[in-house]
Amino acid sequence: MVALDQRPPLIAAIAKAKSIAPEAVTFADMLLVKRLLVKALGKDASSMLLDPNFAIPAAIDILPSKTGLVVTLEDHRFEETPGGRKSRAIDNWSVEKIRRIGGDAVKVLAWYRPDASEDVIAHQQAFVRAVGAECRRYDIPYVLELLVYPFPASAAHTTDYVEAPDKKADLVIESVREFAKPEYGVDLFKLEAPLPAASLPAMDGSSAAKIAASAFEEIGNICRQAGIPWVLLSGGATPVQFHRVLSYSYAAGAQGFLAGRSIWLDAVQDHFPDERAVLTALSEDGRKRLRDLTALTREKADPWRGDFRTSDFTFEGDFAARYA
Predict the structure, then answer these.
(1) Residue 270 and residue 77: Cα distance in Å, rounded?
(2) 183, 206, 253, 290: which has the highest count of C-beta atoms within 10 A?
(3) Angle value at C-alpha 234, between 245 and 145, nearest 5 degrees
């Protein structure tokens, strides 16, 4: 699956490509890039993740009918407090509207740290829980993305969507453990690697590789026990780094990827605003990256299969009564 809902990261990429300040990036710039991404990559993606701010108005009309539509709910403008980040939904946007527009799933990014302040943790948990209830109400799958972030007082603090080089595995693992609880109603996790992609060792059987693998295994065990499949986000990792992340993840039982920048960032940064050059780069390099990741996934990932046993139903109305 390909993520195209990026807002601040794409603004930064366009700004870099045009040698302008991020504030100078226009609405038209964003719409054009999102449309180019769907045009070039849509046929090769099993699903695409679109946002209602830019991607849907830009390209909903050219999204291939065979390509699933996952839609973002959360606003990229989060509230930064000394004790952590608080998420909210995009103004005038809802699970109901995503269902009505023909979305196949709802995606929410929740910034989360188990060591955040009590009020921040309560806010984030309530936000995720409320969306889960709405997804159940409207009978639409719920994709939850979790990201660890630096506190404002940290020397490494940034509001950019970049992976912290000193990220701690336990923060990622405990976040997954919390939201794997049934009360949140999560159907699919979109997760970051528990360790920084740039520092992951090769899977060569070394002690460092075994330590890294154990962190991925812990996530896999949590998801397995909860019955929730998981896929990986790229978080801006290079193609080589992301390939390694996926190799560790698939060995631990992950089901796939929902990635963006690792697939298309270079085409935008290196060639925009030359539309023809961007499309050429996406059609050649971008599609190759996507196809390589797809091939790895088909070879190594755990296929997800729903439990549709019919032998458990013993009388008329049994299925209807149990279907939630």
Answers:
(1) 27
(2) 290
(3) 105
- Strand-pairing partners, residue 84, are 81
> d(Cα 159, Cα 141) in Å, to the nearest integer?
29
Listed residue (171, 160, 159, 152) closest to 81, CA to CA: 152
DSSP code string of 35-46? HHHHHHHGGG-S
CB contact set of 142 (below 8 Å; sequence gap of 6+): 105, 106, 108, 131, 132, 135, 185, 186, 187, 188
Which tokens hold the place of 1? 């699956």
CB-based contacts of 235, cutoff 8 Å, min separation 6: 147, 161, 162, 163, 192, 193, 197, 261
* Cis ω for the linkage preceding 52 (within 30 of 0): no
User: Is the CB of residue 125 less than 8 Å from the CB of residue 181?
Assistant: no
Tens-digit pLDDT profile for residues 156-211: 788 777 787 788 999 999 999 999 999 999 999 999 999 999 999 999 999 999 99
CA distance 123 to 314: 43
Q: What are the pLDDT digits (tens) for 119-129?
A: 999 999 999 99
CA nearest neighbour of 230 among 211, 244, 249, 215: 249
> Distance from first CA to last CA of the chain, Å, rounded?
27
Give the pLDDT confidence score for residue 283 in this predicted structure.
Answer: 96
Domain tally for the chain?
1
Distance separating alpha carbons of residues 15 and 33, to the nearest angstrom: 12
Tell me the C-alpha distance between 136 and 163, whole Å.
Answer: 32
What pLDDT, on a 0 to 100 scale, did the predictor assign at position 106?
A: 98
CATH code (residue 121) = 3.20.20.70
Q: Which domain holds residue 135?
A: 2-322
96: nearest Cα among 34, 148, 139, 160: 139
